[in-house]
């Protein structure tokens, strides 16, 4: 019952899930900060 491939698949899946979760959290935080700062500095958005 020694299946090293299953262990690698599990570790890879956990690592991938953590990476995706961290990336989404980082991007959402960055977008929220940019949205807040942009809303605070610019009263009316200019379209170019």
Structure description:
- With 48 residues, the chain is mainly α.
- The chain has one helix spanning 4-41.
Helical content band: over 70%
- The H/E string reads H
Let me know the number of strands: 0
Strand content: under 5%
Shape: rod-shaped
- Mean pLDDT equals 83
Write the layout of secondary structure elements.
Layout: H1 4-41
Brief summary of the model shown:
By secondary structure, the protein is mainly alpha-helical. The protein contains 1 helix and no strands.
Features:
48 residues, mainly alpha, 1 helix
């Amino acid at each position: 019952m020694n299946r090293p491939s299953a262990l690698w698949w599990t570790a890879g899946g956990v690592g991938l899930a953590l990476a995706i979760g961290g990336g989404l959290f980082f991007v959402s935080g960055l977008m929220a900060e940019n949205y807040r700062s942009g809303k605070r500095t610019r009263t009316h958005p200019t379209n170019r």
